[in-house]
Amino acid sequence: MTTDPRGGRGARAAEIISRTRFVDHFLAPVRSVRGICEVCAEPQAGGGLWCATCTAHSRQAASLGTHAADRVVFAAYSVAGRQSDWDMHRYKAASPGPANPSWMRAAGLAAYFGLMHRACLDTGLSGPVDAFAVVPSLSGRPSPHPLEALVSYLLPGVPAVPLSASTLERGDRDQRRVFRPDYFTVSHGSVVRDCHVVLFDDTWVTGSHFQSASAALRQAGALHVTGLVLARRLRLDWGANDAFITEQLARPYDVTVCPVGEHVAQEG
User: Fold this and answer.
1) What whole-number distance in Å separates Cα of residue 170 and Cα of residue 178?
2) Are 22 and 104 in contact (CB under 8 A)?
3) Which residues contact 237 (CB under 8 A, 6 or more apart)?
4) Which helix (H) or strand (E) holds 245?
5) CA dist., res. 241 & res. 43, Å (int)
6) DSSP 27
7) Of the candidates 145, 209, 139, the residue with the CA atom closest to the CA atom of residue 181
8) Residue 229: phi, psi to the nearest 5?
9) How far apart, in whole angstroms, are the C-alpha atoms of residue 90 and residue 103?
10) Could you report the per-residue pLDDT of 108-152, keeping only the tens digit for each?
């Protein structure tokens, strides 16, 4: 049922969060315009439903007898070289908390989604969320990853899936950014079997890292995987991005706009 997200608890949350400065830096998600990839939400100069990269991920997954994510939800867009992009790097460069402004803005994105749109993830063919996983770092960053601290804002009370980086040799950064589900390991496959898992990440650039983790969850038995990404990164010098940002993303960030696409009222 679609309702007004400004009612009840959501209205109070929206008022509080809208007073923070994180809304000045991020751009509102757009999924209702033509010419953007249905998976990764990047504009395509040549049109089409899926971009070449997302099409390749789907085909690579199919060749392994598995699937990529059923859908991907982006809380916001970030733009390379702007404050939103810097925040998605700097939030994990120092300890979480008020002393790290970038952390506070990233936490703001997570908090508004959790307060206003958490129930929206239960809609659609995938059904209610059963568990969540966090995309682990492949660069050797020690655990716990700062991203894990944001999950409590997003999915309170939802059990975690033990998803980790495998011991497979991964080479340099470029080699890690390929579609390789075997770069990830689900410790206990029974935890995800026949479940709807939300896979959480901070930034989407090409999606190879994310979709590899999605495919690993599917190989472990997950029935559905919904991607939840804080920021979809856009480069101004790539394809139709500059015109898209200028023409489609000019409005102020509105925390009541549902990134999932079908808002349902939150309880309380």
Assistant:
1) 10
2) yes
3) none
4) helix 241-248
5) 6
6) B
7) 209
8) -120, 130
9) 7
10) 888 888 888 889 999 888 899 999 999 988 776 666 677 777 887
